[in-house]
Specification:
Order of helices and strands: HHEEEHEHEHEEEEHHEEEEEEEEE
Largest sheet: 5 strands, antiparallel
Strand content: 35-45%
Distance between the termini: 33 Å
CATH topology of the largest domain: Immunoglobulin-like
Number of domains: 3
Radius of gyration: 22 Å
Structural class: alpha+beta
CATH architecture of the largest domain: Sandwich
Length: 326
């Protein structure tokens, strides 16, 4: 189907775009990668899977568990740093009201985490593989919170992943698909009369706003505690090895307002190779509020990199880890 025809079929085109990307089905800290479920705890990665052996034997689940009962959570490390890290695992009831779109900032806003905790495993070192057992007695929405305190630098990284247990309803997709269908029918009806139906379309779009995370910009990264968001734009596109170049960072508060005159630092490296950046980039604020120029960026190897950006605006200190693949 040509692009021109897709433009004549707006809702259908939107649906095709949604279905073409598997990223919209990720719940947060756990993502699908090469047909495996991977949990990202900062720059640390592990193969993540869940079993309900009494009910479904060896069937593996990525996040959602279709039946309640004794469930086994397993993390098989893909990064050596997890073998020496102190790992704690908490499962809480999802009271955020955001379902599978709950994120770390939503968890940070919960006043009393202990009151909604259904299982907590204190921090301990598991050298080979991490395993947790919990018997879910009721269906519902939950959030898993995995924290790893690394032994090499003493830093703590957290992964947050919402998941569902048992039958929690039909979900949001039937409502989204229904809304898209009504939009398409509305377009067909009014296009024959050359008369816009802006009011009807606006109402339907407003109804779909709660599901805006499906269309989130992957180039904007929230910081760990949710105080800021960061986006970046290199002046080298695509990124190449052994070329000095510049990045422009845009740093905003959680409410979207620019973060001016903050102290911003940038570091990074290749965790799998245990080395940092070959340069020491300098970060300078520009005349535009919330805009910071990073000079002296260079990558000297192909592979998986992690860029760490720290922000201190005088009131909050926060950071974000951005993965890159060259």
């Amino acid at each position: 189907m040509t692009a021109a025809r897709l433009r004549r079929w707006p809702a259908v085109a939107t649906l095709l775009c949604l279905c073409s990307s598997t990223a919209v089905f990720a719940h947060g800290g756990v993502v699908s990668e090469n047909d495996l479920c991977i949990i990202n705890i900062g720059y640390l990665k592990a193969h993540f899977k869940i079993y309900v052996p009494a009910a479904t034997a060896h069937e593996e689940y990525c996040e959602d568990i279709p039946i309640r009962g004794e469930s086994v959570f397993i993390m098989e490390y893909q990064h050596d740093g997890l073998s020496a890290a102190k790992i704690d695992f908490r499962i809480v009831r999802n009271v955020t009201g955001k379902g599978i779109y709950a994120r770390s900032e939503d968890v940070a806003n919960i006043d009393d985490l202990d009151a909604i905790t259904v299982h907590y495993a204190p921090a301990a070192v598991f050298p080979d593989v991490y395993m947790l057992l919990h018997d879910f007695e009721s269906d519902g929405e939950y959030i898993g919170i995995v924290t790893a305190a690394t032994a090499d630098n003493g830093k703590t990284y957290t992964a947050v992943f919402p998941f569902e247990v048992g039958d929690t309803g039909i979900g949001v997709w039937p409502w989204i698909l229904g809304g898209l269908l009504v939009l398409q029918l509305n377009f067909w009806f009014w296009s024959r009369r050359r008369k816009p139906a802006a009011g009807t379309t606006a109402v339907l779009l407003l109804a779909l706003l709660p599901y805006a995370p499906l269309f989130a910009d992957d180039d904007t990264w929230p910081t760990d505690a949710g105080h800021f968001s960061v986006s970046y734009q290199p002046d080298l596109d695509p990124l190449q090895i052994n070329k000095i170049h510049t990045w422009m960072l845009t740093v905003n508060h959680a409410d979207g307002t620019p973060v001016a005159n903050a102290t911003v630092t940038l570091d990074g490296g290749m965790p799998s190779h245990n080395h940092g950046l070959p340069t020491q980039p300098a970060v300078l604020a520009t005349a535009n509020p919330g805009e910071y120029k990073v000079e002296g960026m260079r990558f000297h190897m192909q592979g998986d990199w992690v860029i760490a950006i720290k922000i201190d605006d005088g009131e909050h200190r926060d950071m974000v880890m951005i993965p890159l693949r060259l």
